[in-house]
Amino acid sequence: MPLSRNRKGRQMELDLPLIWSFLIAFSVLAYVLLDGFDLGIGILFPFFNKGAERDYAMNTIAPVWDGNETWLVLGGGGLFAVFPLAYAVVLPALYAPLTIMLLGLVFRGVAFEYRWRSRNSQAKWDLAFFGGSLAAAFCQGLALGALVQGIEIVDRAYAGGWWNWLTPFSLMTGVSVVIGYVLLGSTWLVLKTSGPVQDKAYDFAKPALWSFLGVILVVSLWTPFLNPVFMSRWFAVPQIFYTAPVPVFVCVAALVLFRGLKEKRDGSPFMASVTLFILTYVGLGISFFPYMVPPGLTIWQAAAPDESLAFLLAGTAVLVPLILIYTSYSYWVFRGKVDPGEGYH
Is this structure's pTM higher than 0.85? Predict the structure, then answer.
């Protein structure tokens, strides 16, 4: 691995925990963006007519949905291997929402396969697809809210109760993630479909946009009051001059999205939705850094020994580019509109 040098010529080692924190953050963001529209389509599923419309909506994600979840495995597995202390603290604090999330993903995956195989029971599998998607999205938001509001740590171990994750703030973030995924899913359908399904997607995306902006505003104003560090990051001088561009760019992305929906454009609504998610993620990173688990566990405190980080980084340097190449190739092969008469069977 390359090393940098200071002015006296001495070698300076790479900050491996910091590098790994960015890799984990990237994996989580990739999962949220890619699997987010999958889950959004599942949440919207009951609003499409049974039969052809639901089949058409599901066929837009059939070639890529399972590959999208690779990033969840990478992020979760990376957290366990690279930041074991953070994993040991977060898991017992969030057992309930994380377990429900995983069960929801399992139900969704099974329903995806079986609804095509058992036409007599398709309505039940459609319900499972919807319920699994909704449960997974909501529990991801609950877990995020519980992490943002802080996890009680004593002697390097979780010291809170069984229900500490369930608060008004975490419920709000749960609803926020569900609405955000609906926005991603509806704009993905705008991009990939035509006819009645696309028309419905436009109709879903408009209220989802305004609702998402509303919950972003509420969560953004609420978050600084959870932790003095968060407050100083966003409102203290001179930090405010560095963080102010984030809400400005959010407004710009929302305007692009609104115009794209109003003018019935195919591509710009989805790209603007993705941009909104990236900006909210950047805002979250601004609040969090340098904590891995706020308010008391930093990236460096949670990290494994440097020898382990270096060994894992060597493998990841090969693995992540391969995943990126495979993912990019998949989306390239299945680019463009989906033909209503073709798809997964």
Answer: yes
